[in-house]
Amino acid sequence: MCKLLVIFSIVSLITHFKSYLNPMFKQLVLLCALSMPLVSIAATAPFSGKISTQALLSDYDKFNKQYNAFTPTEEDIALMQKLEGKELIVLFGTWCHDSQREVPKLIKLLDESKVTLASIDYVAVGYNKRDDAGVAQAHDLQYTPTFIVKDDGKELVRVIEKPKGTLAQDLTKGL
C-alpha cells in the first residue's frame, strides 16, 4: 500500500509540474516510479540454508499439506529400515513444486518408520540452487529435490527430482 502511495505521489508531482519538466526527464521519472514494485519483488529471495523439519512444516504451508495428505504403505515403511545408521542429505527448494511434493513424503516416511539415521541434513537452496554454506555446491546439485544417502561419507544412493518407483524404494535401492 505504501509503495502505491509513493507511486501516486510521484505521478501527481509530475502531472502538477509537467510544464516545468523536460518531456524525456518526465518519462524517466515515470518509468522509475512504475518499476519500484518490480524491484521490491526481485529483492525477495527464497530461504536458503539448513532447516529443521519442524520449521519446514510449520513455516511452509504446501509442505505441511503434503505431509498430512501422504500415507505411506507398510512396504515402504519397512524398506526405510535399510537406511539404519546411514547419513541423509536433502537438498531442496522451498519454492520448488517437486520439493513440495517429495520432501514431506520423506519426512512422513522417516516419522512412520522410526528409523535411526547417523545424521540428516535438510538444506534449502535459492533459485540459483546454492546455499551460503556451500553444501549444494559440494554435492553438485543440479535439480531439486536431491536426496543423497551416504555411509561413512561415501555416497551410496542419489534420488533426483522424483523417484522412478516410490521414494522409499529409490532411497533404499541396492542397500
Automatic annotation (TrEMBL):
PROSITE patterns: THIOREDOXIN_2 (PS51352). Residues 32-175 form the Thioredoxin domain. This is Thioredoxin domain-containing protein.
